[in-house]
């Protein structure tokens, strides 16, 4: 998983996330010797250049690389970018490169960070399509072929993404399903504006599923160094401002959520920083967008309100963690971004909690739960005595 995905605001949770009970996680098969090369049935295959940044993930690297080499229906190249890992990444990376001429291994002499590493990969790419795949994530069979098919069929699509399976720290598996289950076709094309509105203030795209036209990626440029934790989100918005976006309703990749993941814990001082980066992502979108998008005041207001609501949600989390200064700072940010939220229900609820204070608020919630439980038991008892069903 990328460094960006290691924050609670950047995990792909804006769509539906469904637990998959008792599901065995698919593994990447080693079919590298059977991989299709240049043609299939007389049709020239699209080449997908996959960049795999790696820092301290030697133990995952082989599975990640082999998941790319085993893809069918496309011609692939892999660049492993070792960002000066202190583990045995050099040993694993060199071995993988020596076994398959489609794999190249590079090692940085000093740690450059993920943004510089991503941009080095973009500079290297020269195929039809491009994918950034973190070394701890891996592709599922057929994912690149499906993306290539969609983008061959719809030339106006500049980026394609899909569902992802999430390997949880406890061994369970859940699914990131960005568009949910409602009337979503197996392959669907969204206009850039539709995608931007669907994304709102969240990162809609599971990063290991995002396949981009290389020419478009080169046109819009690389990741912004000033947005280390909102870089993916800003990139998807930037691409969508220039092209349509395709969605594939299939499990395209697996990404791992680690026990150290910031999304699994409270990280007070970083919340406001992440929110500020999201605002900068919106500012960047409108600064370089087409004239029609720059003038779209309804879209600006919509995104501001989405970001403000996200901020109020995070302020509530800070309050619940008894971090009152952070909650107050985030609330101020929310109202600066979207003043119309001052009289919204989430803001009024937060103001009520702040007035009462966390200790008294939790005491009231405890009393309310006990009262609700008593009322429920009384209804059940009354229904049982009259022979009726609760709720009838």
Pick out its properties.
single chain, 392 residues, alpha/beta, Spore Coat Polysaccharide Biosynthesis Protein SpsA, Chain A, 2 domains, 11-stranded mixed β-sheet, 13 helices, 13 strands, 18% strand, globular, disordered N terminus
Describe the structure.
- The chain has 392 residues and is α/β, with parallel strands linked by helices.
- The protein has two domains: 4-263, Spore Coat Polysaccharide Biosynthesis Protein SpsA, Chain A (Alpha-Beta Complex); 265-356.
- 44% of the residues lie in helices and 18% in strands.
- The chain is built from 13 helices and 13 strands.
- The protein has helices at 58-69, 89-99, 114-124, 143-153, 192-199, 214-220, 231-240, 268-288, 291-294, 297-320, 324-337, 345-356, 358-386, and strands at residues 16-20, 39-40, 43-44, 47-54, 75-82, 103-107, 129-132, 138-139, 157-167, 173-177, 187-190, 211-213, 244-256.
- Strands 1, 4, 5, 6, 7, 8, 9, 10, 11, 12 and 13 form an eleven-stranded mixed sheet that branches. It has a two-stranded antiparallel sheet with strand order 2-3.
- Helix 8 (268-288) runs antiparallel to helix 10 (297-320) and helix 10 packs parallel to helix 12 (345-356).
- One of its GO terms (molecular function) is transferase activity.
- Pfam families: Glycos_transf_2.
- Residues 50-167 form the Glycosyltransferase 2-like domain.
What's this model, at a glance?
This protein is of the alpha/beta class and 392 residues long. Helices cover 44% and strands 18% of the residues.
